Amino acid sequence: MSNYTKTYHALGTEINLTVFQEGQVPALDKAYELIQYCEDVLTVNRTESEIMSINHAAGSHAVSVSEISYDLVKEAVEVSQENHGFNAAIGPLVKLWHIGFSDAEVPSDHEISHTLRLTNPRRIMLNDKEKSVFLLDEGMELDLGGIAKGYIADAIKRLWAGEGVNQGIIDLGGNVLLVGESLHSSGLWKVGVQSPFDFRSDYLGMLKIHSNSIVTSGIYERFLNKNGHSYHHIMDPKTGYPVKTDLLGVTVVSPRSIDGEIWSSLGFYNDYEGTLRLLHDDSIGLIFVYKDRTVRITDNLKDRFTLTDSSFKMK
Asked: Which SUPFAM superfamilies does the protein's record reference (predicted)?
């Protein structure tokens, strides 16, 4: 069986979509149209979008939005209000540091403490009937960059199901969602887990899994070097500074891609032991990669993950 892949550019990255039947190729462009629509309504990197409408109205009034925006905001807010590290209201802090952009600077302690007051997710009011969102304090901002790709990948999978696509690969710039069984006789997919010390084509290990999402978050791709210090882009909503951690990367295997996004963030905030205390879902597995080249994995991945780079050691 052949594979049919198209490459697109959206969400600030290269996107590769694959199906395995020629008659299903039109589903690739339909998925891209969905991606473009989702980006239009969810982005905070433009002056206008549904999420930006919510942000612009902060402290003033509630804003009703589409079902796509509301569903994503609601899930992000509910996870944020559990206060385990993931925070959809972190927008003002991300903008203050702006790591990954040319104008990135280390803020003062005063700027950080002032900005932290605008990142309380319990100051977000949701109205299911009106599908409206109200940020109660002026200056608050939603930032769904840490969760939107996962939501969009899951939406593509649902779209494809309606188009009769039961086998394919959704790759949203490193956020991968595998649909159906692979072409191997076992039906398992083989997926490389990126080495945080090398280029994207180099792997530290290999996963053999059924239809699942694979999401990796790392501190090695966006950072700010200033006055002899290096600051990565994963912010701690409790301190206002980048998360203090010995981790370099967290990879999550999960049925839903949005859960991969959430748990990869929670992994950084809570490390291995703390994440295990929060995790009560056997369908979600995690791989933790540390600066000293040690690797820790959850028990449910021990038969599915093989370390292939001898410079790393299992802990």
From this structure: ApbE-like
